[in-house]
Amino acid sequence: MRVAVLANLKQNAPTWEGMSPDQWDDLDSPKTVNALIAAIKSRGHQAEFLEANIRPPHNLIQRLEEYNPDICFNIAESHFGDGREAQVPAILEMLEIPYTGSKVLTLALALDKPMTKRILWYHGLPTPEFQVFDRPDEAIEEDLLDEAQKELRFPLFVKPSREGTSMGVSSESIVYTVDQLYTQVRRQLKLYKQPILVEHFIEGRELTVGMVGNIAEPVARRISDHAMRTALPDGLNFFPIMEINTAAYRESEAGLYTNRMKVELAEDYYYLCPAPVGEDLAFELKALAGAVFRVIGCKDVARVDFRLDQANNDKPYILEVNTLPGLNPGYSDLCIQAHAAGWTYEDLVNTILDLAVERQARPGVYAQG
Q1: Is the pTM of this model over 0.85?
Q2: 346 and 225 in one domain?
Q3: Same structural domain for residues 147 and 50?
């Protein structure tokens, strides 16, 4: 099988004066791309990297036509636009080339954290109350107020609405006063030039649930609470739950899984996998992650991040879903979780590939899924 690995390397990204220093922290490194190619080749396939950019000198469409892949292993983040992670898959669908991972609508939706949270709220899935700020002088809505006191319920958490790798997340993201709130909103609007998400800050442990697979049954009008509490969805393989040991960096990172931890400290941060959680809580986290996978429309692979509310008996709150989870073999969360399950990196990569082939192969080449 001929596989094109599509990614955006940080070293090939555009630059400009005044750009945020973490602007391209969600892009990939040659180490990740080379590891993917080696993993795919280890199972007898052909594999080649293509920079996922249609502009010269990369000319993705021309390169795809020349290489003529049977399928693309897609981890492309792209550079600009509200739904940038959906841009390359949209091109692939126009060219009728299969690819791994979630489809266009899901990728665009999951990148937009407020839109994702609206879907979660509709299905009754727990996520912190929030408001989106498009302007620095926007009035505060009731969702951020304490119902009884009708006053702001601090602390609040401020972050860009359409970024990955915890871009914009630092100790200053937690705010305790109205002045701090508007200062952070103003700063992030200027830096990231996109709506800013403000939500109630959940003080507690941070965990993540990775999974591979596909769910065959369609999404009901709303996810059944009874169904979630009694069985995990068929078709998904859940990896051991991972806890980010934010306490190890409490002084510098304020107990957050910050951008600095994911970038500067990526190869030297602390985690627990499997996380020390009881069976009931582990089941609840997996059930919620499976429900998110289902209602957002994920395919092949995803990771869902949680915080446990220490003030509310460790109630889990969904922070976000990552439909393009990192695949750096040395330190990416999903790879750590797969390793804890006894999987090799080759197992993980080729399982994602095989799931995509089974699900949406090119007509005449593989069985239709």
Answers
A1: yes
A2: yes
A3: no
In this prediction, residue 18 carries a pLDDT of 77
Residue given tokens 């996978």 in the structure block: 293
In total, how many domains does the chain have?
3
Q: How far is CA 158 from the centre of its chain?
A: 18
- What does the longest C-alpha to C-alpha distance in the chain come to? 64
Strand order in the sheet with 156-160: 130-133, 196-200, 156-160, 174-175
Domain hosting 177: range is 129-200
| pLDDT of res. 201 | 92
Please check whether residue 46 is in contact with residue 72, taking contact to mean a CB–CB distance below 8 angstroms.
no
In whole angstroms, what is the distance from residue 310 CA to residue 315 CA? 7
Strands 71-74 and 315-322: unpaired
Give CA–CA dist 7/257, Å, rounded. Answer: 24
Q: What are the tokens at 285?
A: 């986290």
CA distance 87 to 190: 25
| pLDDT tens for each residue of 335-355 | 999 999 999 999 999 999 999
Query: What parts of the chain have a pLDDT lower than 70?
Result: 23-24, 147-150, 164-166, 168, 218, 220, 226-227, 248-255, 257-269, 361-369
